[in-house]
Amino acid sequence: MKKLHLKLALLLCICLLLSGCAFPLQRVSPDPVAIPTATEEPAAPTFRPGDFAIPAPPADAGGALAEPAETPVTVPALRPIAEPKLALFWYAMADARVFELREAFAPVLADSGMVYREYDAENDRYRQLDQIRDAVSGGWDILAVQLVAESDSSAAEEILQAAGGNPVLFFDRVPDPDRLPADAASGSVALIGSDPAEAGRLQGKMAGDYLVQHFSTADLNQDGQIRYTYLLSSADSAMALLRCSTAVEAANAVLIENGYRPLAYCDEETTICYQADPTGAGSSDAGTDILRNDLSYYNYTNSNMIELILADTDDMALGALTALQASWCNLGDGSTVTIPLFGIGGAVAARSAVSLGQMTGTVGVNAGGYADAVLSAAQGLASGQTAEAAITAVAVSSADYVQDNSRPWALFIAPSPVHSDHG
Question: pTM for this structure?
Answer without folding.
Answer: 0.67
